[in-house]
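Issue: ligand-bound run for adenosine-5'-triphosphate - logging full I/O for the record.

Environment: standard queue, default settings, no custom constraints.

Inputs:
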Amino acid sequence: MKRGGLFDQLIRTYALILLITMMILSAMLYQLMQSYFYNETENVLLDRGREINLILNDYQNKVISSDVLTYELQSIDRSTNTRIWVVDTRGVIFTETGPIGERFGGIRLTEGEIKNVLNGQTVVKRGYFGGRFKMPMLTVGIPITTEKGITGAIFMHSPIRSITQTMMGVFHLVLFSAIISVITAAVLIYFASRRISIPLVQMGRAATDISSGNFDIQLDESRNDEIGELAHALNLMARDLGNLENMRSSFVANVSHELRSPLTSIRGYITGILDGTIPGEDREKYLNVALQESKRLTELINDLLDLTQIQSGQQPLNMTEFDINEVIRITVIKLEYRLNGKGIDFIPRFENDTLAVYADKARIEQVVYNLMDNAVKYSAQGCSIWVRTFKNKGKAYISVKDNGSIIKQEDLQHVFERFYKGDKARTDTSSGLGLSIVKSIIDQHGESIDVRSKEGDGTEFVFTLKAI
Ligand SMILES: Nc1ncnc2c1ncn2[C@@H]1O[C@H](COP(=O)(O)OP(=O)(O)OP(=O)(O)O)[C@@H](O)[C@H]1O
Ligand SMILES: [Mg+2]
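Outputs:
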């Protein structure tokens, strides 16, 4: 696994979160336990204090002897690990318990230490009790109350170290569980990060492949998460880029091919004329043919320029209102010579005399021309062409139909592609750009175009425009 990679980052983040959590938890636990322990010890000491008070009453009433008193106090000390001092009203310790080395008998406590207790208050203190102890103590001082009033004070000291030790034990427990947790997390994160990093590495490789021109990649899309989505997106991108690349190379090949054939024939005629292969009387005829070819070349280049311009969206549409029926009538006039030459019947079927649309007029003229040009071109002598316009739900529908030759079912999906030519068109001067220009213009308008072709019925193109 890579250094500084996904695993490293995840485990570091996790460890940091754990550390912060542990610190907060420990601090809170410490607080909680401390107050709990202090309260508990305080309560125990207060209970013992009351007990001792009774014993002292007995002692002062001479019910028990001084030996019994000492014995009783020492047994309390042993059972609760508490140093007990009994102090008279002057503050002098007259009875005490505790190890021999820690005896304070006869010592007089300071005014400040006993004043409040002798006034009847219960006092709780933490610390070394005026430096008298070597370890911190929790000290509880209570007054000795008898029928005669307050006759002294009882001080009970319980070492705090036992509390600290318990707390250390808990800290060790927390630390231990944190270590276990980090180890478990490391194992889990290792597998989780592998599940993420392996596909990421694969995608990285795929992206490198794509950038070096290999679009043939297939990433696993089966995962139901963002990684699956990303893989799907990359697959799509590779496929689209591959298609684009194919289109680009076939476009270049097609253009070169289309330009080469007229150029070759023009060169042939001119060479023939120059070297005298074409006799003098035929020269004019062949020069005319060369002129025709060069015109065709210009047309082809114009078509190509149009197409790239429309498809790149460089030229915005010049939207105006106009009558589409009028555009059709003018196109028929342009094609009249060829219609008459082929004896083709033009049959207009306009729902109304005019049909106002909102579109780029020059472009739509080109659409209508290209469609009607095809209808004439691919219809035999004596066929008919129907052009129908009508309005429906805010759209203008324009249908150009002929009963000439048919487009094969399997070719229908290709007719709008650049340089696509049917069998008949292959040999003549067609370039196969007409319908792709039509489609681009209609697409640019955000409208649609459909084609239908059926034996015995003919071929029909229908496109829509925004009606006014
Ligand atoms: N009305 C139609 N009837 C039968 N076939 C058609 C018709 N219109 C188009 N086609 C077929 O679709 C092909 C593509 O048409 P398109 O107009 O794009 O190119 P073209 O007519 O061959 O060349 P260009 O229009 O660039 O001179 C044609 O070659 C032809 O085979
Ligand atoms: Mg055409």
